[in-house]
Amino acid sequence: AQKVTQAQTEISVVEKEDVTLDCVYETRDTTYYLFWYKQPPSGELVFLIRRNSFDEQNEISGRYSWNFQKSTSSFNFTITASQVVDSAVYFCALSRGSQGNLIFGKGTKLSVKP
Amino acid sequence: DTEVTQTPKHLVMGMTNKKSLKCEQHMGHRAMYWYKQKAKKPPELMFVYSYEKLSINESVPSRFSPECPNSSLLNLHLHALQPEDSALYLCASSQQTRYYEQYFGPGTRLTVT
To answer: Is B105 on the interface with A (CB under 8 A)?
Structure first.
């Protein structure tokens, strides 16, 4: 079975705090891709990152960083020095098979307060 | 440019109406998708088109009818909808279906009265 679990339903932080969003996945595939998307209140899902199963290097993009660990089937997302504009629902997703379907986690709603 | 456009932004329709949602991308992507998203839930896949052919229909009721007139356009025809079909309908595209990131449009917020 393929599944993505985002155990944190809602997180609230104060601006400038660091925050980590957890993502745990299950798959029997040896080749797979993981994704993070951001959905602000406006509704549009914004693509943040894609990571393939053979590349366990951590990635940093500005205030965003991602930690992929196959040993624990986790792909966690950290926002450093959070800002109000980071307030959104964040989805972790797993690609499914050759058709490219995305299996989404239930999402984590992040609220950053000034 | 990673833009997917959708029209209309909002749509209110009665249960006997026929309407269409439109989606367009000019990124040269060969895969396009329709998702339905209810409040506080993740998107649910409805249809996948690959090279203008329907490749996946996730058991969607026939009152939803997709159409892909060309590689840049995707339509979703709506007929005899139910109030429970009220949701945000998202269109997405990707280079191909397999393993590529999907780029989403802003969505159409549909209300069925």
So the answer is: yes
**CB proximity list for B61: less than 8 A, separation 6 or greater:** none
User: With contact defined as beta carbons under 8 Å apart, do B21 and B11 qualify?
Assistant: yes
Return all residues near A64 (Cβ < 8 A) that are at least 6 apart.
Answer: A48, A49, A77, A78, A79, A80
What distance in Å separates the CA atoms of residue A89 and residue A107, rounded to the nearest whole number?
6
List residues bridging with B64 in a β-sheet. Answer: B78
Q: What is the distance of C-alpha A28 from the center of its chain?
A: 20
Distance, CA of A43 to CA of A38 (rounded, Å): 9
pLDDT in tens, A65-103: 999 999 999 999 999 999 999 999 999 999 876 666 899
The tens digit of pLDDT for each residue in B76-105 reads: 999 999 999 999 999 999 998 878 899 999
Q: Does the distance separating the beta carbons of A107 and B42 come in below 8 Å?
A: yes
Amino acid A11 reads: I
Tell me whether B97 touches chain A (CB under 8 Å): yes
Contact B94 A100 (CB under 8 A): yes
